[in-house]
Specification:
Length: about 160
């Protein structure tokens, strides 16, 4: 018996995830970014993380070729940024405050924390690509803001 995509999505929707914006640069140095909730730590030694990117996403081709990428962990106040980077629009970075990490990737200002990663592997699994990166640099903000969460198909906050 097979599980339908709707059943699978309904059950996984009950797993709360943090919301991040993943960024990378293309071969010509252009910035690209997208909202990602399919993000996880993999290993402490060495420090590894992974992100899953739909083959339909415009970031799929960029990230599959990128040598480095960034992850910005969003606060509840950054929900508008999450929505912006989730849309298929050009100019996602216009007017968005960010700084360049040591590897050149864009890291969103005001995020709870940021990671700069070197892509160490890329593999396809079903309708997604799995990007594993070694964390080279980290940055924590001094904010006490709560994280932005995604739960049951909507944005959520701790304590809801």
């Amino acid at each position: 018996m097979s599980v339908s995509p709707d059943e699978f999505r309904a059950v996984l929707g009950r797993f709360a995830t943090g919301v991040t914006v993943l960024t990378a640069r293309d071969a010509s140095g252009g910035d690209h970014g997208m909202t990602v909730s399919a993000f996880s730590s993999v290993s402490l030694q060495p420090p590894l993380v992974l992100a899953c990117i739909s083959r339909d996403a415009d970031m799929y081709a960029v990230l599959s070729q990128a040598t480095h990428f960034g992850i910005s962990v969003l606060t509840v106040a950054q929900e508008p940024l999450s929505r912006r980077f989730a849309e298929l629009v050009t100019g996602r970075f216009e007017g968005v405050p960010f700084s360049r990490g040591a590897t050149g990737v864009a890291l969103l200002d005001g995020a709870l924390g940021c990671l700069e990663c070197r892509r160490v592997s890329w593999s396809d699994a079903g309708d997604h690509g799995i990007c594993v990166g070694e964390v080279l640099h980290t940055r924590e903000s001094g904010t006490t803001s709560a994280p932005l969460l995604y739960y049951r198909g909507a944005y959520a906050r701790l304590g809801q």
